[in-house]
């Protein structure tokens, strides 16, 4: 082959170098009319936002653009923006906590960065260096950290979002995207003690299916849950318990507002207690709280770090659980408790599941929590608010 022909076949066209996400390019425009944070007892989840937000544009020609921290305010979008037509949007949810000494921390934020990139990959939005975004998020939180209410149990909810905002309709990888991060001060999920929730085991709607998008934090997973949520509420239940397949395997619980995943429950098998949660089979969102609950339970079971008041013999299983098994265990008095886990509520006890026309009753402890969730919750919350030192807590 002649050199000439070679150059026609492989013209060495240089791909333009796409810029990575670069924190050192950050531009900060201070809000000249900062708001006064409202009294903490008036806070409603997700209704109040701080003075600033972070935005980072991306386009297919140059890559990530200039990160900006600027006054919180409306975005400008063309009506043709693909996010508005094809749900090219994904998000994350994490919290910034303030400990007793006044230090601000994030809880395992590297996991949120990884999950956000996984979500981006799944819908062909651009990925980014997670450490770089975390650096920028910390700078944003530092600027607005006085918005974290001083009262115990309060925190700052951090909502990173990535959208496709190509200005031309057509389904494909967008040639423009926008990553933004907003902050919302929030109070404790349970201001006056744990309130167990009643779930509706829904057999008429599906949240996720094998090969679908249930394992990713995509906007597209949530709008279809609103109608089933309304139906469950009309029947007197607070949430849907999403079931899968002919055997009605338990998958997860998703609230429309603060998200909450269905997590472990416990059965007594011989002399041991089993903490069971469905496996990450592509239909379950890999929750940071779920992972933390499992890690703490495993540390306890292995003797690495014993949790006070937790059963000595604890078996931890990630395996399928059917409604038939739950009903049988409840009927035999072997069901110890059931709970969900997520950033918003940390642990949510369940006291009842409506299923095929009847209620399955689940035991709850005096204060709503059970003998497994209580010690795990205590350790988890201790690590989140800094009362218990751990490497999960990352200084801002
Ligand atoms: C965000 C979310 C959760 C909770 O995940 P955490 O990382 O623990 O906050 C659970 N289930 C679904 C469907 C979610 O979107």
Automatic annotation (TrEMBL):
Question: What is an example of a GO molecular function annotated in this UniProt entry?
Answer: branched-chain-amino-acid transaminase activity
Which is one Pfam family of this protein? Aminotran_4
Q: Region entry Disordered: which residue ranges?
A: 1-24
Which Gene Ontology cellular-component terms appear in the entry? mitochondrion
- Entry's InterPro entries? Aminotrans_IV, Aminotransferase-like, B_amino_transII, BCAT-like_C, BCAT-like_N, BCAT_family
Which named protein is this? Branched-chain amino acid aminotransferase II
Name the family the entry cites: Belongs to the class-IV pyridoxal-phosphate-dependent aminotransferase family.
The record's keywords, sorted A to Z, are:
Amino-acid biosynthesis, Aminotransferase, Branched-chain amino acid biosynthesis, Pyridoxal phosphate, Transferase
